[in-house]
Amino acid sequence: MRQQIVDGLRYITRHEYLGNIAATTAASNLFSNIGFAIFPVYAYSVLQMTPAAVGTIGGFGGAGVLIGALATGRLQRRLGVGRTIVLSAAAFGPIGLLLALATPDNAFWLLSLSLGFGGIIQVTYNISQVSLRQAITPEHFLGRMNATMRFLVWGTIPVGSLIGAALSELVGVRTTIWISAVLGFFAFLPVLFSRVRTVQSIPSEQPEEIAAAS
Q1: Tens digits of residue pLDDT in 118-151
Q2: Residues 31/189, Cβ–Cβ less than 8 Å
Q3: Alpha carbon distance 196, 9 (integer Å)
Q4: Residues 155 and 26 sit within 8 Å (Cβ to Cβ)
Q5: Does the pTM exceed 0.85?
């Protein structure tokens, strides 16, 4: 098992696409969960929202997920898979900014926009990057790649939550939301400055065949 863990880490960190995808996804999860960890406190105490209002904006988030699932294929064909990944990751920052700009007077509408578009963007990004990484990994290596990738990108979630909780005590809830939002603007940089942006479509050949042809 130890060797398999090493193999998975080596494969991802040395791959021209996977390492940068892992970095962007891990950074996004870290930065966003700084804010999401304290979202209930922010919504109910700072923005003075009601449970009905919070539940409704959650519904907009669910609608966004459905729209994103339906629209991703068209976006990939129009923009290319790589550009879809980069542009959707670049939208993480503006979505977080809508949360930070909310006040008790406009919270319902700004948070509805944030969660609605956030649902679209998150699904678009995840469908695109997961489909790409599945297609470019040899079948016998998929288990190690996925296990390592999920450890790397999900491992930052509890770290971000702990940071968010600590920051809210030190600098306040709203300031912590702002920190989360500003940091979110930088999460897309690894995929931007990589060859991921040049990928036009999901490869249809098996990775072994691609390697043999090259």
Answers
A1: 999 999 999 999 999 999 999 988 999 999 999 9
A2: no
A3: 19
A4: yes
A5: yes
